[in-house]
Amino acid sequence: MQAVPPPFRLQAFDSLDSTNDEIARQAAQGAPPNLVVTAASQTAGRGRRGRSWVSTPGNLFCSFLLEGRARADEGPQLAFVAAVALQEALSALLPAAAFRCKWPNDLLCQGRKISGMLLEAARPHIILGVGVNVTAAPSPALYPATCLRALGSGATAAEVLAGLCEALAHWHGLWLEQGFAPIRQAWLERATGVGGPVTVRLADGAERPGRFAGLDEGGALLLEEAAGITPILAGDVFFPN
Fold it and tell me: Which CATH superfamily groups domain 9-190?
């Protein structure tokens, strides 16, 4: 895989258990931030809530070791930073497609999932794992999926990674300097479903329908119900077909 733009440093592997796990191992040994790890295949890739991530060859599997902000509770905001960066990168590769951010950490096109992200702590840094469906669209349990090839793009995983690194350098730097406010605004401009009906499935399986009223100042989904507006910190989001 080709080199990536600065400030990132690339390590490319043929196979790993998980790119996030490899980054974690290197972080534990004192690796500095801005390391990027990719793998052509993963044997134990995973997504949010411990779900397995299908690692089809030709797709992009990568993880970043990124500098965090001073407060640990700001770390989850990096999911929005990454979503905005990836939306920008994919839009540059396929301008005719409408890539939209989906709370909390997915990217959609035509209502189908094309990417997912996973954040893990490696204090004082943060591990950001990103998977992008480049040449194939696995069939996830929760959401229909698509890939760049199905959308008419001939881009490779290396090209997607290069664009992501360039965009992430900008948006991550902005987050470090100015905090979440500009990221929140950029994400809302690129988001799907804001202002419309939504159902949030919580960790205990309970489903709460309401209106997607936006994001609070920390990135929680604001769910408007009959009794008022509730910030939702974690859950799976479903929109009407």
Answer: Bira Bifunctional Protein; Domain 2 (3.30.930.10)
